Amino acid sequence: TRETTDMIAGEGGQAWPFEADITSEDAAKRLVAAALERLGRIDILHNNVGASLALGDAPATELTEEAFQRSFEVNLKGMWLACKHALPALRETGGSIVNISSMAARNAYPLVGYKTTKAAVVALTENLAAANAPYGVRANAILPGLMNTPMAIEARVAQGTSREEVIASRDRRVPLRRRMGTGWDVAYAALFLHSDEAGFVTGVSLAVDGGESVSWGS
Q1: Does residue 193 fall inside a structural domain?
Q2: d(C-alpha 195, C-alpha 96), whole Å
Q3: How many domains does the chain have?
Q4: Exposure winner among 52, 62, 139, 152, fewest CB in 10 A?
Q5: Position 1 in a domain
Q6: Catalytic residues
């Protein structure tokens, strides 16, 4: 959290860290209250949370009840709680919500918890878009494909595959330039969806996947 805050400050921006358990409704309330106290209004809610292997995710016959429940709480419940408590302020400003889902919601994916909860994020986003359009609030989802991020890479390295092999294997699956995306690719998509230039865009699920979802044989 501090590293991200320092990076933003180093580029001339302003950020204030707030550590919270996003699965706690009390924490969601306190987060929104802190934002309103400091800024006076909320224009953007960006929900970027999710995990899979780190939560014990597995195929259906191997997944434990505890791991499935944890996937639900982290990947879906936390987003809903943030939206629930931020929406009154967002309705006052005609603000924007972007929820980070995953292409796992659409594509074949072996791990039940991640796929089902990320698909539910899309459904949640569509519901929010329809219910809040009369207030001028927009809600959209981003579906990242294969990303070169520490969470994605290190979780697979921990299973015994070399880092180089993990990266090479994932790069080969991406049609566009044969390389995974980065956090910046998702950030630029979010920047557009939150901007006034996307003022007539709501309820969409934007794939940011280097063309993987439309490649031959996909």
Answers
A1: yes
A2: 8
A3: 1
A4: 62
A5: no
A6: 114
| CA-to-CA dists, residue 161 to 12, 55, 156, 171, angstroms | 39, 19, 7, 15
Which residue range(s) make up the domain with 69?
43-145+181-213
| 92, 96, 100, 104: CA torsion to nearest 10 | 110
CATH number at residue 116: 3.40.50.720
Closest by CA to 126, choosing from 208, 206, 210, 33, is: 206
Residue pair 81/22 in contact (Cβ under 8 Å)? The answer is: yes
Q: What is the pLDDT of residues 58-108, one digit of tens each?
A: 999 999 999 999 999 999 999 999 999 999 999 999 999 999 999 999 999
- Residue owning tokens 């070169």: 148
- In the block, tokens 């990303």 appear at 147
CA–CA gap between residue 36 and residue 26 (Å, rounded): 16
Please name the helix (run of DSSP H) or strand (run of DSSP E) that holds residue 208, with its range, or none. strand 205-208
**Residue 1 CA, distance from chain mean position:** 17
Q: pTM for the complete prediction?
A: 0.92
Give the Cβ contact number of residue 47 at 10 Å: 22
Token duo for residue 72: 């639900």
Q: In the structure encoding, which two tokens stand for residue 187, read together?
A: 């950030």
